[in-house]
Each structure stands twice: as C-alpha cells, then as structure tokens.
Amino acid sequence: MTSLAKLIxxxxxxxxxxxxxxxxxxxNFQAPGEDSYLLIGKTAIKAKNRQDVEYIRGExxxxxxxxxxxxxxxxxxxxxxxxxxxxxxxxxxxxxILASNEFPFGSRLMIDGVIWEVQDRMNSKYxxxxxxxxxxxxxxxIEFGRQTKEVILMD
Length: 155
Hints:
Distance between the termini: 28 Å
Strand content: 35-45%
Number of helices: 2
Strand order of the largest sheet: 5-9-6-8-7-10
Helix content: 10-25%
Structural class: mainly beta
Radius of gyration: 17 Å
Low-confidence stretches: 20-32, 49-55
CATH class of the largest domain: Mainly Beta
CATH superfamily of the largest domain: RlpA-like domain
Number of strands: 10
Number of domains: 2
Largest sheet: 6 strands, mixed, barrel
CATH topology of the largest domain: Barwin-like endoglucanases
CATH architecture of the largest domain: Beta Barrel
C-alpha cells in the first residue's frame, strides 16, 4: 500500500474512531487498471491504478434502492441486447453498467464500494427506487437476486 493510501486510511480510521462528523467511509481497491474510490465525508477520492488521484467534491447523496440483476440477452432486454438505451455496446465490456429510469445516463452510483454507471433503462413497469445491475453471467444475476442497497450518488 502506498504512503498516500496509508495516510488516507489512517485519516478515515481516526474520523471513525472518534466519531467525528465525517463518518461515511468506504475503501475499495480493485484490480490494476480499474478505478478505486475512497469516500470520506463530503469528498470522494478517485485513484486510478492507485496513483492518479482526483477529488470529487460535494456532499454525497445517500439513497436506498431495490437492486436486481440482469444479463445482456434478448430474453431479458430487447432485440439488441448488447446495445443499451444510451447507445453503448456493453458486450465484452469491463465497465459496471446499471439500468435505471430515475437517473440520467452517465450518472455514477456507488454500491457496496463499486462504482456503477447508468447507461440503460428498465421496463416502464419498474418505478423510481429500483435499479438493475448488468451482470456477466446468468448464474451471477440469479445469485444476486433482489436486494435493498445503500446507493451513493457520485455526481
């Protein structure tokens, strides 16, 4: 772990232990090449490859949503399962994509420390308060099922 990461983790632990006002603390280091995020109070830090650090300012909006999972197949989408409602080709992508009728395309939501990007829409029978996460496999989607999740709106 780099000295910057140690410093940030230390700061987060101090804030947590002393129950200071900045209590939201999520640390997620992912595989090399993927983005990682650290959220402390009103600031989320984006670290690409654990080096390049970008600050995302503002108070995070924390919501509770019902999350389900789906796959990019015709029986679960439409006649072009690889193309999302925003026009993005998601087949073979490593991006974390979700469907939502509530948030605009491009919105980023943190769920369980992972950043998901809104690029698709759900069937109109689903209301606000529901999101659908794109999974790589049918088994993964079935295992995920339907869960109530805390969602942090990143932008």
